[in-house]
Amino acid sequence: MTLKQLEVFVAIAETHSFSKGGEKTCITQSTASQHIQGLEDELGVRLFDRGRGGALLTEAGKLFLGRARKILADCDDSRSAIRRFLGMEDVVLRVGASNIPATWLIPAVLGQFLKQCRRVRLEVTQGDSRSVIKQLVNEEIELGFTGGRFDDDRIEFEAMGHDNIVCAVSSEFATVSKQSLSQAELCKIPLVVREDGSGTQMAVYEALAGTWISKDALNIVAVLGSTEAIRRALLNGTGYAFVSSMSVSDELLDGQLTTVRIPGLNIKRKFYAARREGRELSPAASAFLALMTSRWQNDLN
Q1: Residue ranges of domains in the chain, CATH in brackets
Q2: Most buried residue, 20, 69, 104, 199, by CB count within 10 Å?
């Protein structure tokens, strides 16, 4: 059973004529007859009575007509959906992002993206970098933006620039503390950190791996699950934390927070756009990825 057979069947049913039905579907009368013969052979039942009144539906034909029309309508809807998809109309683009990309990078380009793609709705789910990659693997999202990369052959990473990670502390706490800490002193201060799946925390531990300091040597007093939680803990004088300079830029500017220098420890990390390896992106995802990489490769390099 083919769509062409269904189209011819419906056309003949509506015109009561093989010749007119063939003409309506741009084929000859004999070809129309062949289509109907093939359909009747497959179904094992006659669909039309041929006589002086033209081609009239049998009872089986009447039963089949409604179903044939529904199949053809569903096909038309499917074609329309694909045309909207290609034209980026009434499309939902789902992306995942770790804290810094979700809070700072994506909002900075959102207005421009929505001007370019007015009929696309962007849905962003936020989590740590590891959870974003898991969403990509499970195909819950089409694009991911992370503060770290992972060894996974299923995921393709594209660097989008870099960020500075600083050791920050509240200005009140810093008045009785030093503006510079040795690596030995770093192991003694109260430290608030992100969870292990965080791109920021990955960068910190990778930098510490180049020194004699191990993770176990640090005085970690709290492990928090978001950049905002870390920022609030800093403002409340809980202790020190390694954070993205972007995430505390306002607080550093107005003096609520200050940075502490640690000789021999200069931490930078890259942001990445992530996608499934070997998978073609939708037009909306391609447009958003191009905008993100263009904006942040220029600003962060």
Answers
A1: 3-86 (1.10.10.10), 94-160+273-300 (3.40.190.10), 163-269 (3.40.190.10)
A2: 199
